């Protein structure tokens, strides 16, 4: 390509070098039992039928009062769904199931230590525990509808119990991922204006008991400095009746929930009928600088959307045992461990620990022992399991009918291992794409209706109408191998209502760029900017290339980091790959490739050359990297995400910053010594 041509390539039009992957149809057995087999759903949810089509989703719920209007756009783009309706999320997830499913397991809580018994909590027991805790929160704390409470809890049965008790009262909950620091928790306490913090004394991680209570002390101290006084810290005990943390309780401020609950034995609290547009929870996005961003999700719209997508995309039936391996501290856990599955009377698995404790077979033993038949996890976990135990799934007697991948694009090579090894060539896979802000899936195949395509998230969900725009707002045609900024043309019930306390930032970040008229009350004038780069194939299937910022511009060629990493993973020895940009005088930037090997392989120049050759073969000579670094492991957060920011700092010889949040900070020095 000539220099002149390169400079005229639109910034949003990233040439995609990936080939289109083959299609995998679901099995006839899966199709026969699927919740959604009606092709007409795509017509019913066509763009011209928005918003009225979403009544179909709302009708999956029980309402105290039907709505006056399905979508109120008077404060566009801060939409109100099912306005005038009255509903309670706790009632929909618990009470309404008692008549038929009282003795059915609602939650299987699996402790990390295998010698401890799995706790099987029925819907009746969930009802009792949610009511008693709601009574405590109402009486002891004086909490009422509209109040905010921050939770900083690990994976435990007590976490959904706490969430459901709070929303029973109409109290807005803000759960902070348990692996986050006390400082991160404090920022969220301050931003939400929470007077109460609910936590747990300790939990297991990698076979060790972790003192979690110390983070509560740090959070309260830091929040106080910022002007937000926490009245009480309510502490669940990992072992009721026993304190498992070394950090002492603070007299007058800290109380054991297990002790207080004795006073509320047998108490029942009527669920508060809440306006459909009332906030249900705040979910703060992670990894950003500056003030945390609290995504405010409404009650009726959010619950309708996650219930429907759990039914039609996750294909959850009441008799299924469903395991989503995400953490409830993230939106995936809220939508697809707690609210969606429980609204459908599912049996939802909650696992306390890490997937490879005490060994790489743990996940598959859990699946075998509990009869799990729907499995839901992230590419990060899939890559890790493939790396440490590629042959483990074959050793266990389980059979998934359905598997989900979520959170980031999955490389086709990893997808195929997931399909063949984990799914044993029989499970339907949905490769879902969505965000904290969107509440539920945006793109995915409906598994009984559409074939699977490795590395592709599939078409827009029914009622979700994606469009790919260039920098100037022109539509990038599908099927041309060009990518751009993926936007959604219409509102949907699961989308967040605003950024808590910052409407201006909400409009600026997500709508301003492509807004056709800032004074308009017509939703058609407000396309939603997702911030992701994507390409749409001629069949309407969408492939996400990563965040718009995750595109490396090498001499005018814009390469998505995900396609470079996918190419590296075609090399048989490679378990994980991460690409970062390195400044270059002439090219602007060039890519640096970090790879980690599967067990049994030793780093060598030959493997590095194979990676470079794979980049050339899969993409072309422009994709060759400056270096291929074979590292002992990637720097990762506690949730398993690769910290590319740290790798980029190492490649550019800049300050790596704080590494305290890493699960393996020692890796940073090991990589630095290689350079």
Describe this structure in words.
The protein has 675 residues and is an alpha/beta fold. Helices cover 28% and strands 21% of the residues. Strand 19, helix 16 and strand 20 form a beta-alpha-beta unit. Helix 7 crosses helix 8, helix 9 crosses helix 10 and helix 12 packs across helix 13. The longest helix has 17 residues. The chain is globular and about 70 Å long. The relative contact order is 0.12. The N terminus is likely disordered.
Kindly summarize this structure in a few lines:
By secondary structure, this protein is α/β, with parallel strands linked by helices. It has 21 helices and 30 strands.
Strand order of the largest sheet: 5-4-17-16-18-19-20
Tally of DSSP β-strands: 30
Termini gap: 34 Å
* Total of helices: 21
SSE order and pairing:
Blueprint: H1 3-7, H2 28-33, H3 41-44, H4 55-58, E1 69-72, E2 80-83, E3 86-87, H5 89-93, H6 98-101, E4 105-110, E5 119-122, H7 123-139, E6 148-152, H8 158-168, E7 172-175, H9 182-192, E8 196-200, E9 202-205, E10 208-211, H10 213-225, E11 232-236, E12 254-256, H11 257-260, E13 274-275, E14 279-285, E15 293-298, H12 300-312, E16 321-324, H13 331-343, E17 347-351, H14 362-370, E18 374-377, H15 379-388, E19 402-405, H16 412-422, E20 428-431, E21 466-469, E22 483-488, E23 498-499, H17 503-510, E24 528-536, E25 542-547, E26 551-554, E27 557-560, H18 561-568, E28 574-584, E29 588-597, H19 605-618, E30 628-630, H20 644-651, H21 666-674
Helix pairs in contact: 7-8, 9-10, 12-13, 15-16
